[in-house]
Structures are given as structure tokens and as C-alpha cells.
Amino acid sequence: MIRTLEAEKFLQRLGPPLRFTLGHSVHELKYLDDERVLLTEAGKAMLAAQRELPDASFVLLQVEGGDTYQRMRVDPEHYGRLQRMRDYQVHSYEKASSLLFLAYSSPEENEHFFAKHSFGEEGQAFWKSRFELDHFLAGVRRRGWSQPDFKNDIYYRLAVPIWSPSGKVISCIGCFAEHTGLTKVKKRQMIRQCCRTAQAITDTMRSLWTDLSFRKQV
């Protein structure tokens, strides 16, 4: 039992002498119901998206404490199977998802991000300056999705937000495929499918939250 709790990050081993402390997964328990619903609905939508574009990978991502994590994915190598993750962290300045969360972050979250992830140490390899990065982030907010285009990246990537009823980005759907053989038509299909998938999850979650709020009032 202890090994299982350790593997799931509910316990963290310390010592010597041997002792344990609560792991970082414990705080997720208070969000368990919402998280379960989000994962369930996102899983259905991602499998449906994969049926439309079997050559692309779809990923559910969330931001936590200034870091972006993959929570779930489907890919061509494991067609029809959801892969759940807990600790797969993505790069803060390179990936479409982390840039999306940064684009929609509050001033406080924005300040925390740059304090935690120094632009000079982590971001300058991808962006020439903060001005260039800020210009890209403004474009994300205009388009409604994140789509970085780094010359050496072998993948075509994008990420689309999933919204709460209050207008806050709660997670996002990422989509990627290898550039090799990827036509403009296929890229447009990926954008449309990713947007449809994110919107479907947003609509479902909004409906569920509205229904739950009504029940509480009754």
C-alpha cells in the first residue's frame, strides 16, 4: 500500500531515519470531482478527435504553479487508448500549451511565471527578446489558440483553451503531428479539429457546472 501511495505521489519518502510526508498529489483531492468530470469528458472528446485525425496526437494539459503538465493523451502509436499521466511537465517557453497558459495568465500569474522561469536562462533560446515573446502572446489572444513555429521543431503544434463558465482558462487541448508530409490542408484540419474538441469540452463542462449550480440552489 505504501509503495502504491508513493508511486501515485500521495506519499513522499524521507530519511534516514525512514519517515514519510504527504506528497504533492494530496492537494488534488479537493478538486477530485471536477477533475474526474473533466478527464472523463476530455477523454471522450479526444478519442472522437482521433477518429477524425488518426495521424495526429491529442493531449489534455493543465497549468499548476506556473508549470504546465500533460494529464492525458491519445496518439497514433496507441490508437484508441487513453494514456493518463501525472508528472509529465512540458517546456515553459517552447510548447504551444505553456505559451497558451502564459498568454491568458493574470498579472499575478504572469509575474510568478517569469520569476520562476527566467527568460534569460530558459526562454532566450526560443525567443530573441521579451518583445518578440509578448508579440506572439498578443497574437495568441487575437486568434484564440497558440501555434508556435520554431524552425528546428520536427512537429507542427497548436493548443486551444478550455474555458470555465466564469471565463477562465482551466485547461487546454494540444494537437501535434510531424511536419514531414504535412500539407496545408492537413494543418487546417488539425486546427479545426482541435478547436472543435476544445469547444465541445467547454460546452459540456459549462452545462454540467450550470446543472450542479441549479441543484445546489434547489
Automatic annotation (TrEMBL):
InterPro entries named in the record: GAF-like_dom_sf
Domain of life: Bacteria
Protein name: IclR family transcriptional regulator
Protein source organism: Cerasicoccus arenae
High-level lineage: Bacteria, Pseudomonadati, Verrucomicrobiota, Opitutia, Puniceicoccales
